[in-house]
Amino acid sequence: MDEKLDVSQQCALTAPKGNCTLGCTKSSVDSRLREGILPLYSTLVRPHLESCIQLWSPQHMKDMDLLKQVQRRATNMMRGLEHLSSEVRLRDLRLFSLEKRRLWGDLIGALEYLEGAYKKDGDKLFSRDCSDRTRGNGFKLREGRFRQDIRKEFFTVRVVKQWNWLSREVVDSPSLETFQVRLDGALSNLIQWKMSLFIAGALD
Fold first, then answer.
1. Cβ atoms of 155 and 106 closer than 8 Å
2. 11/65 Cα distance (integer angstroms)
3. Is the pLDDT of residue 18 over 90?
């Protein structure tokens, strides 16, 4: 992170690490079957793209694309998928996009904080919105106001809108496992909503 709290440098360092590991995998494994390449990608390459991602989640489209290129390269290595688009390859392989996995991780992390799993380290990371609004889920979080837009990209800030968007059914899940299952069904709509906000902001 630089003096302006921008994480582009971290993204620029992370993508080459993933590509290097992917290159070593490609040169060391003869098979291009998905049964061989997919577990290697998930175990050796993707962790480079996601380690501590809640702290340095990419803030700019150019950084997101830089990380996406690593995943595109990995899926393009698999025999029989070369002619397909990146989105179709992900769907065929039953892989989440990196953006969807970041959203997933943010919301799981927020739930763990709210449930007290990390109470010792962050008792006041989030504050509940005590307004009388009943629309959406029954556990709204309060959105803060900041002078600098870069602050909005911090985990404890950006996850608030994502959390407040979730339905009552998801938020009121009786266990973490149930929350994960219900969250999966909501994420596709959440990604479309987030992208519409980004496009609207760009037009403004």
1. yes
2. 10
3. yes
Summarised one tens digit per residue, pLDDT across range 151-200 is: 677 888 888 888 888 888 888 888 888 888 888 877 766 555 555 555 55
Least Cα distance to 98 among 198, 3, 18, 204 occurs for 18
Low-confidence winner among 8-17, 111-120, 129-138, 160-169 (lowest mean pLDDT): 129-138
Count CB atoms within 10 A of the CB of residue 35.
8
At residue 131 the predicted structure's pLDDT band, cuts being 50, 70 and 90, is low
Spell out the domain ranges in the chain: 8-95, 101-203
Contacts of 159 (CB under 8 A, 6+ apart): 106, 107, 109, 110
Residue showing tokens 């479309």: 192
Distance of CA 44 to the CA centre of its chain: 18
Token pair 């070593």 is found at 24
DSSP 176: H
Helix%, strand%, coil% for the chain, nearest 5: 65, 0, 35
d(CA 164, CA 129): 10
Compute the distance between CA of residue 142 and CA of residue 159 in angstroms, rounded to an integer: 11
Render the burial of 56-75: b for 16+ CB within 10 Å, e for the rest: bbbbeeebbebbbebbebbb
